[in-house]
Write a structure and sequence with these properties.
Helix content of chain B: 55-70%
Radius of gyration of chain A: 22 Å
Order of helices and strands of chain B: HEEHEHHHHHHHHHH
CATH class of the largest domain in chain A: Alpha Beta
Strand order of the largest sheet of chain B: 2-1-3
Shape of chain B: elongated
Distance between the termini of chain A: 24 Å
Number of strands of chain B: 3
Strand content of chain A: 15-25%
Largest sheet of chain B: 3 strands, antiparallel
CATH superfamily of the largest domain in chain A: P-loop containing nucleotide triphosphate hydrolases
CATH topology of the largest domain in chain A: Rossmann fold
Helix content of chain A: 25-40%
Number of helices of chain A: 8
Shape of chain A: globular
Structural class of chain A: alpha/beta
Number of domains of chain B: 2
Oligomer: heterodimer
Largest interface: A-B, 29 and 22 residues
Strand content of chain B: under 5%
CATH architecture of the largest domain in chain B: Orthogonal Bundle
Structural class of chain B: mainly alpha
Number of domains of chain A: 2
Largest sheet of chain A: 6 strands, mixed
Radius of gyration of chain B: 27 Å
Number of strands of chain A: 10
Number of helices of chain B: 12
CATH topology of the largest domain in chain B: MetI-like fold
Bound molecules: adenosine-5'-triphosphate, magnesium ion
CATH class of the largest domain in chain B: Mainly Alpha
CATH superfamily of the largest domain in chain B: MetI-like
Distance between the termini of chain B: 22 Å
């Protein structure tokens, strides 16, 4: 990256600074305390996560980023209650959680809509589980379908939808339960760039208008900086918190900001955290020599 | 376009053509062996016994014997026997079998205790049906439980793994002793032959359900009961249906054992009897009826399956 005098990512405008002050005054929705996770693998014990501490405030948008295998999925699965922590605990509104529940909605990277249910029935699933009667559940599901703009597809089966539509339904299905926090594990990872940008815009729109806290895993730097209030940067082996970055880009976000100074500065900083420049070792390159004759039709690609 | 491209479906016309060949080629082979004399025809059918004392009209004799007798007659200057090349009695020609599809139904039982073909068929269908239904009523729920909960898997599967190695026919005598000599022990044999496989197959199918769907259900607040009835069961339904189609095919293979115990009856017994009377055209017709019946039921189930599960992507 060419270094054109980018500002320090820590330098925040007064408005942004003020916003973070207020953000940290908000009640804590989810708190992670001294979380450690060890797996008993084939080659002995592996520490996937070590001593994670984190406070997520009400209606905050937190992104998690880190190299592959640093334990991002493990972390979100523990928050969801799908996996048990080895040490430490996870508190939701001050109460410890140990098993999955509808107050923590989850959107997975793979498409996990129930293939045997139509879009409407997928969204009704959690509502019916919570004891709502069928008519109200149906009415509520319709509202959600309207909201995500899929009215034409309410009676379609998941295999008839595109990837982006499936994830919209998955988000609506999780939100219909009125969770306190929405946990998302690389939800847009399988989508093409255009659909992904659209989905990011939808998600921002939803986050602005609904009482929801978002915890979002990604490996896409742009996505993280664009969406997050704060970014949790993890490092691998063992998965530890490297830094909790406060994104200095003003809210509300807009695609124009992708080229703003604050945006680029933050991106550069995180890039350096994840791929330290010193890491470029000599033995990680191709060993190629010229294999095209000099007098070939096309002697050079240049 | 090449017919042999890896992982590429044939176009519509070739598909139909190849499927026709699937039946056409064996039939063609059969026709050639039956109607073209020099391909096989190891026997001679006597049309005129001549001077050979033990030859009768329409009798089948080995070619070698026929020519020996013929040579002897020629030496003695007596009348020569006449005959035409023929296949052995156990290989009737296609047209004879086709006729037998009708005549087998009208072949009167030789003894009063024996059954007509339609009675035999009906008896077999009932044995298969009840054996399979009873097995499924118990086996499918047990399989689903074993596939869903480790507890039930550990509880059922070791014993079932052991039991499924015991050959179903070995229980014939026991079944007769306990259940009498009529249909009940036959149904029991079909049950024993199907049940243990069924539990294991269904358990495996259940285990193959995408765990992400179970996790999605949990994060949506589904309780234990809902997980079982609203996710596991509908989730495996199309695969379960396919398993049942395959298992039903297996059940037919136990039929021959089942029908030999107690009072012999049913289609396989009909075949045994007809073979004893040397009505091989009826034997072939009856064997084919089993095949046609099995295939028809399977195609019917496949057709129903496509309508039952609209969420299944057509492959
Ligand atoms: N069930 C398990 N048993 C043993 N080891 C596991 C298990 N699940 C995860 N791990 C290990 O924990 C580490 C973290 O895995 P995790 O899937 O959380 O990484 P990740 O950050 O989500 O990676 P990616 O970016 O590729 O999704 C990995 O080294 C992985 O091998
Ligand atoms: Mg992951």
């Amino acid at each position: 990256m060419t270094d054109v005098n980018l500002p320090d990512y820590k330098k925040q405008s007064p408005e942004v600074k003020d916003r973070f002050e207020r953000l940290k005054q908000r009640p804590v929705t989810m708190e992670v305390k001294g979380l450690t996770k060890k797996f008993n693998g084939l080659h002995g014990e592996v520490t996937a996560l070590k001593n994670i501490d984190l406070k997520i405030h009400k209606r905050e948008f937190v992104c998690v980023i880190g190299p592959s295998g640093c334990g991002k999925s493990t972390l979100i699965r523990i928050l969801a209650g799908l996996e048990q922590a080895s040490e430490g605990q996870v508190l939701l509104d001050g109460k410890a959680v140990s098993k999955p529940g509808p107050e923590r909605g989850m959107v997975f990277q793979g498409y996990t809509l129930f293939p045997w249910l139509t879009v409407k029935r997928n969204i009704m699933f959690g509502l019916l589980e919570s004891g709502m009667d069928k008519n109200s559940a149906e009415a509520e599901a319709r509202q959600w379908i309207e909201l995500i703009g899929l009215s034409r597809f309410e009676n379609s089966y998941p295999h008839q939808l595109s990837g982006g539509m499936k994830q919209r339904v998955a988000i609506a299905r999780a939100l219909a339960n009125k969770p306190k926090i929405l946990l998302m594990d690389e939800p847009f990872g399988a989508l093409d760039a255009q659909t992904r940008a659209k989905m990011q815009a939808y998600l921002m729109e939803i986050w602005k208008n609904i009482d929801i806290t978002v915890f979002f895993i990604t490996h896409d730097l742009d996505e993280a900086v664009y969406l997050a209030d704060r970014i949790l940067v993890l490092k691998a082996n063992p998965g530890e918190v490297q830094e909790l970055v406060e994104v200095p880009v003003p809210q509300p976000r807009h695609p124009d900001q992708f080229l703003s100074q604050e945006f680029l500065a933050t991106k550069k900083h995180i890039e350096e955290l994840i791929h330290p420049p010193a890491e470029e070792t000599d033995d990680d390159h191709l060993n190629l020599v010229r294999m095209v004759p000099v007098n070939d039709d096309v002697g050079s690609v240049f | 376009m090449s017919l042999f491209t890896v992982n590429k479906p044939l176009d519509r016309r070739s598909r139909t053509l190849v499927a026709l060949c699937s039946f056409g080629l064996p039939v063609l082979l059969w026709c050639m062996v039956s109607y073209v004399p020099f391909i096989w025809h190891p026997d001679m059918k006597v049309t005129d016994p001549g001077s050979v004392s033990y030859f009768r009209n329409d009798m089948l004799v080995d070619k070698e014997i026929f020519y020996n007798e013929s040579a002897t007659a020629e030496e003695n200057g007596t009348a020569l026997p006449q005959g035409i090349p023929a296949n052995p009695v156990y290989l009737p020609a296609p047209h004879e079998v086709v006729t037998a599809f009708y005549t087998a139904f009208t072949t009167e039982p030789q003894r009063r205790s024996e059954a007509w073909l339609h009675e035999s068929l009906w008896s077999s269908i009932q044995v298969i049906f009840w054996g399979f239904v009873i097995s499924s009523i118990i086996g499918i729920p047990l399989g689903i439980l074993a596939g869903t909960y480790d507890f039930f898997s550990r509880l059922f599967e070791p014993f079932i793994e052991f039991f499924r190695y015991l050959p179903a026919p070995a229980f014939g005598a026991l079944a007769v002793a306990i259940l009498g000599i009529y249909q009940a022990p036959k149904i029991a044999i079909i049950f024993i032959g199907t049940f243990f496989q069924q539990v294991l197959v269904v358990a495996n199918t259940t285990r193959k359900l995408d765990p992400a769907l179970l996790e999605a259900g949990q994060t949506l607040g589904a309780g234990n009961r809902s997980m079982l009835f609203r996710i596991v069961v509908p989730g495996i339904l199309p695969d379960l249906y396919r398993d049942i189609r395959i298992l039903l095919g297996w059940a037919w293979t136990y039929l021959i054992v089942a029908e030999l115990i107690g009072t012999s009856s049913g289609i396989t017994w009909f075949i045994t009897q007809q073979a004893r009377y040397k009505n091989f055209d009826n034997v072939f017709a009856a064997i084919m009826m089993i095949g046609i019946l099995g295939l028809t039921i399977d195609l019917l189930l496949a057709w129903i399956g496509r309508r039952l599960f609209p969420w299944q992507q057509s492959k």
